[in-house]
Amino acid sequence: GVEVGPQPQGVARADILDKMRKIVKHGLDFVQLFNEGKEFPPCTIEVFKIMEKVDYPRNKNDEIIAIIHPKLQDQDWQPLNNGDPLFLTLDGKVIPYQGNCTVYPTFINEAAYYEKKQAFVKTEKIKLAAKHLRSSAS
């Protein structure tokens, strides 16, 4: 499957649909070239590895007491550094990110994750290396 987002439930966005079509086309092009025996050279790629899910700040009654800070909203896959604004309490107090490394949040403030107690997911950027690749069937 291919998931391209973020996109609210029940909303069809032309830009997201276009990205999904391009990804599927590249995948199909790769399969065709691989099946034709093309050799792909070694490569590296940056990916985002999930570290942990982060919940909203809550009170003793398990009620959300802060929302995503406006500077973090819509910043999926962008670096979040120690001290950057993370949450904003309902009385206007900023809760900064406190971490010992840069992280890359994603699924920020997604409506589908409120019930799962997830404000966002912290990821780290890593590099993966692949050896050359060629179909053995020719």
Automatic annotation (TrEMBL):
Give the highest taxon in the source lineage.
Eukaryota
Q: Which residues form the AstE/AspA barrel-sandwich hybrid domain?
A: 44-125
- Tell me which Pfam families the record gives: AstE_AspA_hybrid
Q: Which GO terms describe its molecular function?
A: hydrolase activity, acting on carbon-nitrogen (but not peptide) bonds, in linear amides
List the residue ranges forming a coiled coil, or say none.
none
Q: Cellular component terms, GO, for this chain's entry?
A: cytosol
What is the name listed in the Swiss-Prot or TrEMBL entry for this protein?
Answer: ACY2 Aspartoacylase
Q: Report the source organism.
A: Oxyruncus cristatus
